Structures are given as C-alpha cells and as structure tokens.
Amino acid sequence: VPEVTLISCDMTMPVIGMGTSPYPKVDPETAITAILEAIRAGYRHFDTAFVYGSERDLGGAIAEALRLGLVKSRSELFITTKLSASFAERDLVVPAINMSLRNLQLEYVDMYIIHWPFKLGKVVSSMPVEKGVLLPLDIKSVWEGMEECKRLGLARGIGVSNFTSEMLEDLLSIAKIPPALNQLEMNPLWQLKELREFCKAKGIHVTAYSPLGSTPSRFGDNKVLGSKVLQDMAKAKGKTTAQIALRWVYQQGVSLVTKSSNKERMNQNLDIFSWSLTEEELDKISRLPQHKTISFASIMGPHDVVLRIDAGL
Ligand code: A2P
C-alpha cells in the first residue's frame, strides 16, 4: 500500500486505512478476529475513535498481532483515534487521549483528530449528535490541547475531521502546528471538490471516510454501490463497483478509510493500485449527481456551505 506524506507533521501514512466504526456492532472476539484478518491481508493503518467504543478491541487485536508476530513492532502500524466532542475542551484533551491510549494499550497514537467541529454539551454514551447538545467549539483552546498531545509524544500527528474551509481558516490563524489532515465524508457521490482544493492549497491532506457510502450501516443507503454509472464502469473494466469508488478517491490524491469484515472484500479493497481510471472515466464520475450519505452531519453543503445546526455552529 502506497504512503502519503503529511506535510505539517513530517510523517507518512498508508493511503488505505481499515475503519472500526461501531455499526453493525459486533462482539469483541469477532471485532478482534476481523482486525487480525485485516493485518494478515496487509492493512497497517487502522482508524478508531473514542466514541466508537472500538478502541479496546483494536488495542486487543494489536497486542495479539504482536504476540503472533504478524507485525514485528508497534511502529509498523499507523493508528488513528479521535477526540470525542464530549471532551472538546482545553483541559480535557490530554486526559481524553490518555484514556484512549489506555484503551488501545499504546504509548502513542500516530494521529489524533478532533472528531467534530463542535462541542457536545451533555456527555452521552453512544454516537453524539442524537442526544447531545451541540455547542460551538473554542478552537483556539482545544487546538492548544491537541498541540500539547503532540509535544508530549502522545500523538505523532494531529488533525481534524468534518471541518469546513471557514473552520480551517480559523484554525490556521491560531495554530502553531497546522493540522496534518482533515478527515471528511467523501466518495464519488459526495466529492467536496472546493473544500479539497482549499485543503490542498493550505497543505492539509484529505482523508475520505465512507468512501463506499457507508453501506449498509444505519447511515448508509447504498447510493455509491448502487450507482448505475459506477456499476457499468466496473463491468467494463472487470472490477467491482467498490474498487471503482476507492480508486477514484485515490486518484484525487486523497487517502481513505474503509471498512470490511469480510476477507475477500478486504483484499479486493487493497487491489486498487495496479490499474487506473482513464481521463474519460474520471470526467464521467465528476459529473455524477451529488448526494450526502450521513445526514446528521450535514454541516457541509455541496459547495462547502455551512448549514448551521440548531445550536448555532
Ligand atoms: P462488509 O463488512 O460486509 O464487507 P464504508 O467504508 O463506506 O464505511 O463502507 C463500509 C461498508 O461497505 C461495510 O458495511 C462493508 O460490508 C461494505 N463493503 C466494504 N467493502 C466492500 C466491497 N468491496 N464491496 C461491497 N461492499 C463492501
């Protein structure tokens, strides 16, 4: 798997990561087995978040992979976790990463990300936005906490997720260490072209989440894999629709986090580097009608417009 360079933190990251988000929820043994399977298949980059509740399983799987000799040292893995919106306050950032590190049984993560550009007023146990009260994020003070994580060696790199260009402007104006990356919902049906161009101009790498439209989690509605244009392209090239979607993301210069618990699909999703989409195919995909999958996260319209959420983001 090729690596991308993350300019602001002077480090590299495998362009494909395996997601560990909690839907569908599985028991720890199944989760650990799937992660070990992914390591065997060649995945070295794993993406979790405090709020997913999957850090402990990932930590258990990493320990087991080391014990089994599937990887020789911790440093062969690239591990990302995220600051929960419940802890998006200056003095809670370092305690929050320490809690994640305990869950992961690690001394550092490779990437620590602000999960959402808002603060959650009430601590809730499951995915935030359903029950919590959304409050504006004090980005200056929270980012100081993130920078401290890096200074303390608890995170090699620091970044954000779901940030619009406006929010990034605010962040860049105060950051001593600029964010290495912005993790965004992105796929052929949600291309975020303008936001990606903005990030590129500022030296912020983009990582796509839900590159397959998140099917069939509770957010997903199978629009990406159900796209006739992508399906026809896949047929004509002897590839799968998922591979077309993932290859398209990669050809945009974007890394990606995707999830599969199935060995065959894990392998399939890594097999996107020995072939490419033609200019004509890229052009066809660029004209697909846009459709956002994760509706509760609709803070970004197709032109990077902030559709303000109730709480006055
Ligand atoms: P499964 O675990 O059964 O493979 P996303 O990465 O956009 O969040 O989407 C993840 C979902 O897409 C998972 O539910 C996963 O199901 C499914 N998926 C992953 N890879 C493929 C693939 N190559 N073909 C079809 N579905 C896939």
UniProtKB/TrEMBL annotation:
Q: Does the keyword NADP apply?
A: yes
What lineage is on file?
Answer: Eukaryota, Viridiplantae, Streptophyta, Embryophyta, Tracheophyta
PANTHER family, alphabetically? ALDO/KETO REDUCTASE (PTHR11732)
Protein's GO biological process:
alkaloid biosynthetic process
Source species: Malus baccata
Site (described: Lowers pKa of active site Tyr):
82
Query: The organism sits in which domain of life?
Result: Eukaryota
Which protein family is named in the record?
A: Belongs to the aldo/keto reductase family.
Which GO molecular function annotations are given, in alphabetical order?
oxidoreductase activity, acting on the CH-OH group of donors, NAD or NADP as acceptor
Positions with a binding annotation for substrate = 115
The name this protein carries in UniProt is: NADP-dependent oxidoreductase domain-containing protein
The NADP-dependent oxidoreductase domain covers 16-287
What keyword terms does UniProt attach to this protein? NADP
Identify the InterPro entries for this entry.
AKR (IPR020471), AKR4A/B (IPR044497), Aldo/ket_reductase_CS (IPR018170), NAD(P)_OxRdtase_dom_sf (IPR036812), NADP_OxRdtase_dom (IPR023210)
Q: Where is the active site?
A: 52
